[in-house]
Design the sequence.
């Protein structure tokens, strides 16, 4: 397309600098070429615009899906994960407390179990 635009521009420049008379047919041919090029450029721009919108929507959808997998704050998945973490913490503290009780020194030495 750019090559064609350069050709039309060159032809227009040639006609503008020529000492020969420019015919109506020559001008109409240039007009037709410029209109065609303008439509092609418009279609390419529209395609690029549509592609950019589609890519943005795809990125937004991927982000939304990733956030859904992670579990948004306050969601059921988030509350389930928090509950599981509290259970792990509770179990860890319970085991640590048992070990501390077993290892606690008394006046007679080690505590009896």
Sequence:
């Amino acid at each position: 397309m750019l090559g064609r635009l350069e050709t039309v521009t060159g032809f227009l420049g040639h006609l503008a600098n020529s000492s020969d008379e420019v015919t109506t047919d020559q001008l109409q041919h240039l007009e037709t070429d410029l209109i065609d090029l303008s439509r092609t450029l418009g279609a390419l721009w529209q395609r690029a615009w549509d592609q950019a919108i589609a890519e943005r929507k795809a990125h937004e959808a991927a982000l939304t899906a990733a956030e859904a997998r992670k579990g948004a704050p306050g969601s059921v998945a988030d509350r389930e994960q928090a509950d599981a973490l509290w259970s792990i913490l509770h179990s860890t503290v319970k085991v640590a407390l048992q070990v501390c009780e077993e290892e606690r020194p008394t006046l007679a030495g080690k505590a009896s179990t």
Notes: The first helix runs from residue 2 to 17.
